[in-house]
Model the fold of this input.
Amino acid sequence: MYEGSPYFEYRSKFTLFGVPWVHVKTRKWYSNRPGVARGIIAIGDVSIGCISLGGLALGGICLGGVSVGLCSLGGVALAALLAVGGVAAGTAAVGGVSVGLFALGGVALGQVAIGEVAVGKLTHQLNSPDSASWSSSWQLIKELINKGFKL
Done:
């Protein structure tokens, strides 16, 4: 961290192909520009890295308000593999509103969709009388997932 700088910043000395192992960069309360962190492990207002944590997180494994990557967790999560969030989109998506090949959530849209409102090729609505007991729901969920992999 430099005196007078609008950012708090830490950069590890160890690098891999010129990319720092750990990079943390956040703005101080009086700065109006976000701190952008780039590293193997990146933590910042905007973070780009293999493991990324920030308001906007981009990379492999992401955790943030808006996260985009291979596996994402956040308010809005977009992922190639697994997305978990309020609004989630990915191959497998879990969230309030989820869109994906396999979708689980309040509103689920996908090939295999499970939720209060489920739209897709194979669906299970959790508010139906068939889903009254957990054991019957769990059995049905396993059957739907197995059918989904056979599509």
Summary: The chain has one domain: 7-150.
